[in-house]
Amino acid sequence: MFENHAPGAGSSLSDDARLECGVCWWVYDPAESDEASRIPPGTAFAHLPAHWRCPECDAPPEKFLVLRDEP
Prior knowledge:
By secondary structure, the protein is an all-beta fold. The protein has a single domain, classed as Rubrerythrin, domain 2 (Single Sheet). The chain has a four-stranded antiparallel beta sheet with strand order 1-4-2-3, with no helix packed on it. It contains no helices and four strands.
């Protein structure tokens, strides 16, 4: 389940936050990262390069939603 849209600059997104593409539902998990874009594991969503896009559908980072962990 998602909580909200990916925050902009200056917001507080935890380094281990997982985000889901609001277009194709691909999940960015910092622990796994994005091999297709050569993003190393451990890279927080907030630290992705400015040119990064969803590897599945090419959506911009603004289309990503923060996943909330269910208890």
